[in-house]
Protein 1
Amino acid sequence: MEVRLTPAPVASDATTDPARPPRRASATPQVQPLRPDPEQMSSPAADDLVQRFSAYQQHNAELARDTATIRAAYAIAHEAHKTQKRASGEPYIDHPVAVANLLLELRLDVNSIAAALLHDVVEDTSVTKEQVAQAFGGEVAHLVDGVTKLSALEAQTKEEAQVGTYRKMFIAMADDPRVVLVKLADRMHNMRTIAAMKTESQQRNARETLDIYAPLAHRLGIWQIKWELEDRSFALLNPDKYQEISRALALRRDAREKIIHRVISRLRQALDKEGIKADITGRPKHIYSIYRKMERKGVSLDQIYDQLAVRVIVKSVGDCYQALGIAHGMWPPVPGEFDDYIANPKESMYQSLHTTVLIPGGQPCEIQIRTQQMHEVAEHGIAAHWRYKEGFGRSDASFEAKLAWLRGLIEWRRDLTDAREFVESLKSDVLEEQVYVFTPKGKIIDLPVGSTPVDFAFRIHSEVGNRCVGAKVNNRLVPLDYQLQSGEIVQVMTTKNARGPSRDWLNFVQTSGARNHIRRYFKRLRRDENEAAGRDLLEKELKRLGMSIAFEDIAQLAGVRTIEDLFANIGSGDITARTLVQRIVA
């Protein structure tokens, strides 16, 4: 790779901000080429990065060029951050190197590694996006820009600034999924080093991580990042409960490991007897997932089924089902605790067989069975699919289809202007709790818990939603606000003569996609129609609650100039009457 560079001026003052260094000064219009320091390009740190990258690039014909790119990216990052320190006092360069190493564990491509090394230079130093593009190409510059934090975002409130950051992240992420991989690795290292922050900053970052980044890692199937983000956040947000579960698990560790060893030994013997080669290991349990199950099911730690867990990795899909039959022949399965994610993969691309059996003593033990390729996807999610795409030089159609939900988030850029509603919609659509329902043709649809047939209809297609007049679940009629449950078959009833969606649907739909489609439909109506409908909806909501508030006062609290604007906003779906009144009484 050819890199043209002169030393880029960098910010000279070290940071005292726990989160990050000071912002760079405005870049000059002229693009000054960057020149990496040859000494840093051949430093031990650069050597280590190149060695780790080369370990999984045996068939890369462009390896020499790619390793030169990584060396140059490291050298430029080192120069740009050379005067900056982390809150812990460590050199700031340690952070981008750690982020790059996390992506090397995911075995990502050279541009992702370069972007990881450079991900803070545009925001925190004098290096510009144009310089990055000139030195490394537009793709790396695009990735760097996608993960650049917007601390200088022009917003009226911190909440709105946060929304702007989320919106930009998701727009960039939908365009190139590698953006979020760098972002997640960035957050992972920040959580690992969070002890240097003030307590208030720790709490804020932990809450944001648990609400946004861990669920996002879940939806993208990157389990090794998801688990760590969850446990680290939970330890800060609820230290007493974290320690309680941690101590309870530690007290039983020796006994648990002995039982797992016996299960593995018996299962391996049975599989060997049938000629099935398998890698069988105990599966580590994560404290936050145990806590969530205790809360969700209202049970104690002793009643959580999968404290004992075994993972079986075999060669083929056929071996998966044969191994399942063998396990069920050895130990009785627990009713209702079997899931076939091979035949019905999750939208995060996860595939595996899950079953829970009762081992001697009546103790439940969860068994997961999958192939090696499924295991790669289970651990690395979207990163594994990206490697597949890169390695074979063509797009994976199923991979692209499964990312449709992600690209749909672009709609938030133009449809959600209310800060709190944006954040709530974001949380709703990426939260861990999902229901898995089926179309009549057997396709699995992943929706947030609490979703309705209307959410399902709009997930299928906007026109299906607009023409929806009813729904059947498991072949029986249900109301449109019925909350779907996993395993149900949903059939949407439509008519060409439908007058469009109902404004009332905004009171019960769960997904941002459905909400946005409904809003867009009503925004296209005439203003006088929206005003009349909005007034009617607001009057009904006030009457329902037995409240009497002047419309002028509500308009003032809503931040609009006139009651006509208030009615029009409600009628077009920009805000629901219920949400508005709830804010007033809160």
Note: Strands lie at 278-282, 309-314, 339-340, 353-359, 363-371, 434-438, 444-448, 468-473, 476-478, 490-494.
Protein 2
Amino acid sequence: LKGTLASEPFTRSRRARGEADPTFDLLQRHNFSVTPARFSALSSASRSSRSVSPSRRKSLLPGASTSLCSALLLSGTTLPARVLFPAFQMAVPWGNAMGPLALPHPVHALPHGNRKNFPKFDGSGNQSTDSHISAFIMSCSILDVTHEDVSVRLFLETLQGPAAEWFQHLPAGSITSWATLRDAFEDRYKPSEDAFTLLSRITHLKKEANETMRDFVARFNALINRVPTAMLPTPENQKCFFVNAMSSKVSFLLLQERVATLPLAQAAAIRIEDNLIISGELRKESGKA
């Protein structure tokens, strides 16, 4: 983290000259509720708050001084989710509070191991998406990465040049999981698939454990919409593929609904998931929801 406040507190020379402080502006842009007086107090406190570990500092605000990050941490301040991801400072337009990434809590710390050996991808056409993803998964296994949010953030570190720029221009809030990132990446850089390959993907599609039902419905429909009309599965088969993509518990509950069409099955699946979350059963089933 490159400091802007370590030697020049906002309360004095910068404000005296009428200059805006970049870290204060960054906090405001990310809807972090902090008054100038509160910010000045944090800045002053930061000069005596250097005992926080570097790994925790890095989970705080990109662009802020290390000492200010320590003060924010010690103050018990909770920052919005989008400012907790310094791993992709080069991939996310930090001036835009509504970037592509919208990972749910909790957000886990990045691994301490050497990440220099992770594969890189620039979208030049010299690398296949399959080989890049395989090499990335292998690198994650070496560092014992187990959390999905960590995998997403590490994958963004592998994007370079045009590929990193491509990520910047994805729709706001469109990347909510490893599944949505992988699908977006493959849709952009994988050679066009023929209809038989698409049908195979639909047949074997599974809902990810940490994927919301609404996100999965959108992902399923996006695949269906890419199949040529002449080769579309029958409506009954589309519904069956969707039901089979669920966990055994949700599939069983869906079958009990006896819905006749895919849209009705998808609406029922969303309702079932909402009810399971309210009752606490989904937490017991996945251990993560």
Note: The longest helix spans residues 262-279.
Protein 3
Amino acid sequence: MAQQAVEGAARAQWASVFREDLFEGQAGLVTGGGTGIGFAIAFELLTLGADVLITSRNEDRLAEAAATLRKAFPERKVEYFVCNIRDDKEVAAMITNVLERFGRLNFVVNCAGGQYPAPASAITNNGFRTVVDLNLNGTFAVCREAFDQYMFDHGGNIVNIIATYHNGFPMMAHTGAARAAVANLTETLALEWAAYGVRVNSVAPGNIYSESSKLHYRTKGNFLGDDPIAAAAPFIPCKRIGSTQEVSGLVCFLLSPAASYVTGVTARIDGGATLMSNASYVLCDVDNYPKYGELPPEEDTRAVFEAAAQAKLLESKL
């Protein structure tokens, strides 16, 4: 329970920017709600008056997270349900369980997912399929069941948490492909389900700090040192990483009436990192890349780059 205690304690001093009754009388589902971004989203939804059911595959982690949330919000309904979103039957049972407990399902936040850093050449077919199955197929299954069992008749809101895949995703080819597919899925569902009063959007977080992400990417094999999330900060225009609360605030906006005319979008929350090519991958020196046509001598090109770099450095000091 240590991880949830740390994350819960960190939020005890934090208040949402939205009014406290924004989601009063509503109920939501947050997959992957036991840790990190998912936990932060569940926390803010409860802060704003909603009842929430969180899910993941790890029952111990879910129980600990639910206990932390219930302690913080004794007046709210906080439930959890163990579910592997790769299993269609479990997903159907999960949606049924939400409706049995709350009688409604006003919004769904798909935050469940997973991946591991590895060069594309080292990812096996099975590893690739597993990550795609979880991040893409699992997300689709949750969206479809929520629509079929409730939102077809009552409308609702869906937010899919993806990632900033936009300039390629080195060391994450499997999840980059899956997340890009979810962005397109978001647009398709927004079109098909608009007539039923269902809005569907995506949020693409960049480098976001949480205890769980720091632990995961440190132990699963990293490529940016001991703390790969924080190591990206110098390459981000804002010169810092983001917080889970910043992500949850954006999600709550998209779920709110203020976003009633917003559907089918992918909102990036990355401190401008995707404007700077890829903020988490440093290219090695290359001397064997094929060339075609007339190019200036390499030493002249390097001189131009060095002059530009010096000018940029001077500009930053002014």
Note: The chain has one domain: 2-283.
Protein 4
Amino acid sequence: MAPRPEDRHKLVELLNEFKMENYFPNYLIDLLTYTGYSSCEALSLFEETDRNKLEEFAQQTLPELLSNDEKENFYGVFLKKTAIFRIVEGDKKALDKLVSNCRKKIKHFHSALDTQDRPLQGKSRGKSIKRSVARSVACKERYPDSIEVISVAKKRKQLNEVNEVTLIENEGQSCSQHNSEANETTDETIEEVKRISEEHICNIVKKYQIAFLKQLKNVNNKEEIETEIETMKTPRVEVRDDIAYVLCHICGFKSKAYCVLGRYKQRWVLSNVNRHFKTHFKNLNATNKSKILTTDCEKKRTIYSYFSAKPLNENKKSASDCNNSSSDLLSSDNIGTGGSTEEEIQIDNLEPAAPLAQNIDPALEIPNNNLEVVDLTSTSQAEYVQENLRQCSQPRRSRATKACKSREMQLDINQLKMTDYFDICEKIKCQIQECPSLKTEFTLSANLFFQQKNLRKNIDEFTDSKKNTPSDFFDAIKMAASKNSDVKAPSANRYPHDLKKLCLYLFLISGRLAYETLVANIPRGLPSISTVLRSLSGYYKFSEGEVAMSELKDYLNQRNYPLHVFISEDQTAIVRRPRYNPATNQLIGYVFKKSQRTGFPKSAENEVNSVADIRNIIDNNELAQNAYIYMAQPLVEGASAFCLTMFCSNNSFQAEDVLLRWNYLYEEAKKHGITVEGFSSDGDSRCLKAMKVISELSLSANSDEQERRSAYFPYYQVFTKRHLI
């Protein structure tokens, strides 16, 4: 007896939604499916007593329904005694968590529903009824003579609820008779609601017409207004549920009106009708706004007026002079330099009284204590005006510019920018241009430099003397951006070969996201991600476990390196994940069998040509934990290492496998004329044992007596073997 696939699939999808599929047991999934707890609604109603019922069902009923294989998969340790089957404590925790998540999901679903559409239960329904009753009472107290306005859709919903209640109460009555009576009552009530709504909307439209006529024709007499209204056509209104269409009596345009729920009751919103009427009364849109009266400029108090002093004998300017836009109010010529008047600033009189001045000895020198009024605004005010004019003339910044400015504000104060060096370069250029001797020397040096550069380029492209500096990199970006800025199509952008190689290195080291960020911040200055991937596809691709010895020889010859290398090896942890490499038609990520001759994995075993090959690899091999890499280091200072081979490993190999690999690499290098000076590795015991074997340290006990008489024997020994470590 297998559970129904659709029920089990439904429960598995629920576990995937809650991210519980990794630790939820399979037997518990089958048990819940057998008992009907495969939906979120059923699990939300799961109680503590239901768990005991599940165990009783598994103890008594389920053994008679399952086959022997199904029993073994389901019961596990309880297979011999199914009568004592129990859900273990850890699985109980998982089941409780699943039930809790289902309850939260159902609760969130109900809370997201519209409160008017979902049925209310318990206390929430009581609170809703109290609020609706209080709202209706407040509405009647506030609008005692108003007619209840209700939409047709809401009235139809109320009538359907009443009909359902009546049908339950009159169970003995025939169903057809009740339905016919209910339909007749519903139709009559809905027609009445439509009529009331149409009359209500017509009254509102008439009020709009009266208001417009008063303003248009300045008619205040009530009789004249009624006469004008009678000459107009009665507005036609058509109500459809919560929407009403009002036909204009002038142009025949249909305007929409909506029935919405207000604070106390439902009401009709006729803003569209009002807006349409205004188009026929255009002179009502231009309202006569009162102009601001200009006052005397001397009555306007500003901070500037407190700092500007006027002479006492200067007459006050008229309002017309103040309003004259051609006069420069901020000019220093219009600012006086005399003492402050009492009208400008109310201060005490600082001049001493006349009798007091007569009693002072004339021989006594009295310090000058008169207030010296200083014009503080003659320069600062002009600078302020110039700053305002400068800000107004500048274009408004975009959002991207503002975001860039905010990021700059978050940087450290001492953070240097690329643009900080532009001024320094310009100053150096100016100094060179101004000094003839410097200009001549730099011209000769530059010509000599370019001549040597061209010679080096023709002799050897990969010599160390051609190493680019960071300034060359920035110059290349600047030149590429300036050239590509004139091109409209992005596909027409062109970049130098050296810049492409450097960008490819950045892509491999930093990753796709970091490189895309650089491209977005330096538009048209760096190649796009598609250009980098196209360049990467042109490089040689070797298969897993394949030794690239011929490529190593080409690498050394192109750079004029000696054919002597030192080989190192190491392994690093990787993510256990299989992948298909379309370039080599291989399924990588698995550990394959080692060759008895070379010690490296057989590269032909991971090639896939059919679905059967993929299944065979997955069934017979395990996922790799590490990546094993062999690097060849040229014996030149500053030279980059070359990757000989790499393959997947699970760290299960012996010292004999290490010896086989070393001997194979040594012989392959010898075939291509390359000398392997030695092998290096970390402190792995298997590699150390291989080093001990290949250096013949175990034979030191059989050495001759002269070598044994060494003072450092057996801790220090010297051998003259070409491939020793």
Note: The chain has a mean pLDDT of 71.
